[in-house]
Amino acid sequence: MGGLSRRAYFETNHDLTKAIILGGTARSGTTWLAQILGKMMHYRLIFEPYFPENVPEYTFKFRQYMRPDEVNAAFRSFTERVLTGRIRNGWTDSHNRSLIADGRIVKEVRASLFLKWIRNNFENVTILYMLRHPCAVVSSWNRAGFQPSFDIECILGQNALVKDHLDRYLPILKKANTDIARSAVVWCIDQVVTLNTMEYRDYLVTTYEDLWLKPSDELKRIMGYIDAKNVELNIDARSIISDT
Questions:
Q1: What is the rounded (10 degree) CA torsion for 54, 51, 130, 142?
Q2: How far is Cα 52 from Cα 45, in angstroms, rounded to an integer?
Q3: Are strands 100-101 and 19-23 parallel, antiparallel or unpaired?
Q4: Residues 25, 111: contact at Cβ < 8 Å?
């Protein structure tokens, strides 16, 4: 069933009100939550579409920063294609399990640098943000063999991002000379940009720890925010946890 749904799913509509973007740092539990919501709501899971190596239509930086008020017709056009479900390939559909999808969950671990831009450009889209304790994230990165140097290179190579958010932290960033330290830096940058740009009313923040320790309560809170009143909360969240 999983292989079939990845290749031959059908979406019942392409309305922006049926799109949820789920952001958060890599290894923070975003795939886990996306899989839970996809199963509960019968939504298609679009996996990390802002990844130039695996998505040819995405022609921007690996970690693209967008100022909240920036006008960029090409980036907006690509994002609209993603949010309306008009992008399909083996990478973005690799985690989908819904044959007939009532909507879309866009799971993206590099969205922290443009979440406010999405909120300003697509006001009808629901935004969720997943937090996880930085020590757990860094440990997971380390176990998975992630190399954060390229992330930092992409981040520091964007003058607007450095000027808007990172100038005063540059002396600390330059001291990060191990993969563990660099992973921690990436986690911090994601949170700094998100918290500096997003407002309380813009999104719902959830945490890996709350979802693990009290899954029913946290899913009820998330469903309330999404306004999914008719969704059954009879899912064992822990049974579908991914390797994080």
A1: 80
A2: 18
A3: unpaired
A4: no
The structural domains of the chain, ordered by start, are 2-133+200-240 (3.40.50)
Per-residue pLDDT of the chain (244 residues; tens, 9 = 90+): 445 445 567 788 899 999 999 999 999 999 999 999 998 888 999 999 999 999 999 999 999 999 999 999 999 999 999 999 999 999 999 999 888 888 999 999 999 999 999 999 999 999 999 999 999 999 999 999 998 999 999 999 999 999 999 999 999 998 999 999 999 999 999 999 999 999 999 999 999 999 999 999 999 999 999 987 556 666 666 666 555 5
Q: Which of 189, 191, 180 has the alpha carbon at shortest distance from 154? A: 189
Q: State both tokens at 137.
A: 């994230």
For 161, phi then psi, to 5°, come to -65, -45
Q: For residue 194, give both structure tokens.
A: 């998100």
Q: Are 125 and 118 in contact (CB under 8 A)?
A: yes
C-alpha 107/C-alpha 129 separation (Å) is: 10
The Cα–Cα gap between 214 and 166 comes to 35
**Global pTM value:** 0.91
Give dist(CA 52, CA 125) in Å, integer: 23
- Inter-residue contact 220 to 155 (CB < 8 Å): no
